[in-house]
Amino acid sequence: MEALVALVIGVLTACGVYLTLRARTFPMVLGLTFLSYAVNLFLFTMGRLTIGQPPIIKATAPGYADPLPQALVLTAIVISFAMTAFVIMLALKARAELGNDHVDGREDT
After folding, report:
1. Closest-CA residue to 79 (of 44, 32, 30)
2. Which has the higher per-residue pLDDT, 37 or 48?
3. Phi, psi at residue 57, to the nearest 5°?
4. C-alpha angle 70/74/77, rounded to 5°?
5. Looking at beta carbons, which pairs linking 29-32 to residues 24 or more positions away fall under 8 Å?
6. Biggest alpha carbon distance in the chain?
7. Which long-range contacts (CB under 8 A, 24 or more apart) does 95-104 make?
8. Residue 106 class from Cβ within 10 Å (0-12 exposed, 13-18 middle, 19+ buried)?
9. Whether the Cβ atoms of residue 35 and residue 16 lie closer than 8 Å to each other
10. Confidence band, pLDDT 50/70/90 cuts, at residue 23
């Protein structure tokens, strides 16, 4: 199972980097989204999912679930949503002003 999760994280990262390096704005937005998904999955898997354990340390509990990775993932989800919304609005503004969707603003050839 660890190899599968590592493979999924690697594929998401590779697809995200490839799409981010494209010359159009829509693939760049998708690439940034894939990268944020890969980071969220990485953070969540680093927390080691524990089932049936309380998130707060008690003297009577045999163990506890680490709440930090869950908090980091929730924060990363909010930040990636805001970043995606900002980049989409920036791309729409550039499209309206330049008349094309190239990242560097060049004309279509």
Report:
1. 32
2. 37
3. -75, 125
4. 135
5. 29/84, 29/87, 29/88, 29/91, 32/83, 32/84, 32/87
6. 70
7. 95/25, 101/24, 101/25, 101/26, 102/23, 102/24, 102/25, 103/22, 103/23, 103/24, 103/25, 103/28, 104/23
8. exposed
9. yes
10. confident
| Structure tokens given for 103 | 């990242």
How many whole angstroms separate alpha carbon 107 and alpha carbon 67? Answer: 50
Give the separation between CA 61 and CA 20, rounded to whole angstroms: 46
The 3 state secondary structure assigned to 66-100 is: CCHHHHHHHHHHHHHHHHHHHHHHHHHHHHHHHCC
Give, in degrees to the nearest 5, the angle at Cα 68 between 52 and 38. 100
Place of tokens 């390096």: 21
pTM of the model: 0.78
Predicted local distance difference test score (pLDDT) of residue 68: 83
Please identify which residue in the block is written with the tokens 């009577």: 60
